[in-house]
Amino acid sequence: xxxxxxxxxxxxxxxxxxxxxxxxxxxxxxxxxxxxxxxxxxxxxxxxxxxxxxxxxxxxxxxxxxxxxxxxxxxxxxxxxxxxxxxxxxxxxxxxxxxxxxxxxxxxxxxxxxxxxxxxxxxxxxxxxxxxxxxxxxxxxxxxxxxxxxxxxxxxxxxxxxxxxxxxxxxxxxxxxxxxxxxxxxxxxxxxxxxxxxxxxxxxxxxxxxxxxxxxxxxxxxxxxxxxxxxxxxxxxxxxxxxxxxxxxxxxxxxxxxxxxxxxxxxxxxxxxxxxxxxxxxxxxxxxxxxxxxxxxxxxxxxxxxxxxxxxxxxxxxxxxxxxxxxxxxxxxxxxxxxxxxxxxxxxxxxxxxxxxxxxxxxxxxxxxxxxxxxxxxxxxxxxxxxxxxxxxxxxxxxxxxxxxxxxxxxxxxxxxxxxxxxxxxxxxxxxxxx
Length: 435
Known about the structure:
Layout: H1 2-19, H2 22-26, E1 34-39, H3 55-71, E2 76-82, H4 98-101, H5 114-124, E3 128-133, H6 142-148, H7 154-157, E4 162-164, E5 170-172, H8 177-193, E6 198-201, H9 214-220, H10 227-249, E7 254-257, H11 280-283, H12 288-293, E8 299-300, H13 315-325, E9 332-337, H14 340-343, H15 354-363, E10 369-374, H16 379-382, H17 386-397, H18 422-434
Parallel strand pairs: 1-2, 1-10, 2-3, 3-6, 6-7, 7-8, 8-9, 9-10
Antiparallel strand pairs: 4-5
């Protein structure tokens, strides 16, 4: 009888292997190659398409997005769970997002937890789910939005942590340790409560050089010769604090940042790229080279949103520069790709999707590039033929080329095709019977 049970178990394991979904067998794990997409919630760009408290509507839209990602050959989703100082999940730190339900602080009906659903639904499809947060931004709608924030909002409870910028919006002051602690507490809350594969920040750090923090600099910047170096150190402190705190909670979690495409121009710093564009080192006070060289991130996703041959910011020049920047560091390099330029009032070379695919092809020769992330989800189905061409690229054209996987960074484990899916768990159980 025991021998028969083992034989039946073996047959079932083989059947599971043969009948596994095509995406589980054919799509590489993101640890081997990143094929990601940013899903924006700010302004209801991607999710939800309109604010609602209805769990059924929120589930249906999530399912449609995730199903499309699988169909297109992708393996990771970067879901914006904190578009401002808010949340798309029940939080003890930040209020519910107005982009989710229509009113800041209002929860979805019936205790529905969108992030929990997204994580479970993504993993069931073999997709990674990275929680994407914005660290400092409080409002996008100026005084009107500020006045609508609930009194329990951390910015309302601690107005001395807040700076009103020249664009009329409100930001947390990066020069305060209390702010760094707040951002870290919010990130750790996600890592503790959700099986997300990664915690991700985008390129919004200091909004500009005219940020009104001179009093904070006078109070805390005494050891720095200029305010720029002090601001960069403030951001570096936050990144280091997040790196330590997140990995203390979850050693396997991936922590990464997507800065704008140019660290610095060579005309500004000899270590910079041969470009002439917006540089985040000097403009948003984000020293991404420091994060890489000191191992403060597991991955970096520069947003190289220009084409090959661009006169001020050539895609190929920047891809080469970032490829060299991560050499030997163990930090994974993924490239942020500008799908939105094909859909949002395209002009010039961006009226032809060949522009995007020429850049994808160029990345094939970069040994340290471990994949791409597309901005943004809604741009892909918005362009006629783009979704099908992307699926073809990942299913045939790209897979026929030689891709050198990036080295695995120390202390980090990732998995796009998860072993804790139903079939994986069942297979492990049946295999235990065989043993």
